[in-house]
Amino acid sequence: MLQTINLGLKTNSYCIAIGDRGISRLGELLIAEKFKKDLKILLVTNPEVFLPYGEEVVKHLQSKGFQVRSLIIEAGEESKTQETIQRIHDAAFVQHLERGSLIIALGGGVVGDMAGFAAATWLRGISIVQVPTTLLAMVDAAIGGKTGVNHPGGKNLIGSFHQPSLVLIDPTTLKTLPSREFRAGMAEIIKYGIIGSPALLYHLEQSDSLSSQENIPSDSLKSILKYSVQTKAQIVMEDEREGSLRAILNYGHTLGHVVETLTNYNTYLHGEAVALGMIAAGEIACMLNLWTQDMQSRQKKLIEKAGLPLVWPKLPLNSVLSCLQGDKKVQEGKVRFVLPTGLGKVVIKNDVPKEMITHLLNRISGE
What we know:
Layout: E1 3-7, E2 14-18, H1 26-32, E3 40-45, H2 47-63, E4 67-72, H3 82-94, E5 102-107, H4 109-121, E6 127-132, H5 135-141, E7 146-151, E8 154-161, E9 166-169, H6 179-195, H7 198-206, H8 218-238, H9 253-262, H10 270-287, H11 293-305, H12 317-325, E10 337-342, E11 345-349, H13 354-364
Parallel strand pairs: 2-9, 3-4, 3-5, 5-6, 6-9
Antiparallel strand pairs: 1-2, 7-8, 10-11
Catalytic activity: 7-phospho-2-dehydro-3-deoxy-D-arabino-heptonate = 3-dehydroquinate + phosphate
Protein name: 3-dehydroquinate synthase
Enzyme class: lyase
């Protein structure tokens, strides 16, 4: 049975469906969303996902009358480039995708971001359906309409808002997800507990382990997914295009993106970098007397329980400070930090002294 969460927007509202073996019902969901049975579809996926799930999805959709062509791309951050977008556009041309056609993203956040951006820019915008297969994408990247690619100067500097027509979350696809990827996704879930869901935070604290799917009972995992999706959906409904409130979703991301950029996206997974960014943000909040050491300790215990990194990497301070200035969240030259103040509460600060950042990074990189 599928649980559904409706993400209501002024325009482009959509359904988020969650349930085991959901991918076997994708065709019925598309028909329910008024997509025509003879629709032309481009399925964008990656090799690791296509083998266990892609062929099944293609055959299932074809059995429902849809015209489906698949494109397999590499999913690493190093592949999140305009050259890959060009490949998707070329496949869209070969498939003769029209204004009423559809792109389906089957994979993790990188596949979803690129397929979404390609959909946003093909014929000035066609429909995208997100079918995330990683924990990170299920609770974050697939929801909210953010799409894009990286620029050599920084992560996700090129992109657009393009809401999906449907998000389908099938927890059974996590069985083939490497443990490291699962742990990386757990970082975003911990983030939701800190910024907006005390109930989720308490639920995570009661779990014996958060480091692998095998250690979390199925019902508990579904509850974690539901809490997380509801938190993300509520924030997006209140602020679709990150005008104000939605910026709190960047908790841990300001310095997390620095870690990814300065290590060329090949040392830390996104969630691992976000975990480091959350620890750093928590320390800054403590230094500004916004957040207690007890709360910071609780956050670090959850991050440790999820098997995520705790020690800031040794990066050149000048490079860190320079990279911060290139972040897309900078306004009038000031870096914005999302800082925690209590359970489910954060503030946005753009006046964190450079000296404080330098002192902090010198300290935590040696812990």
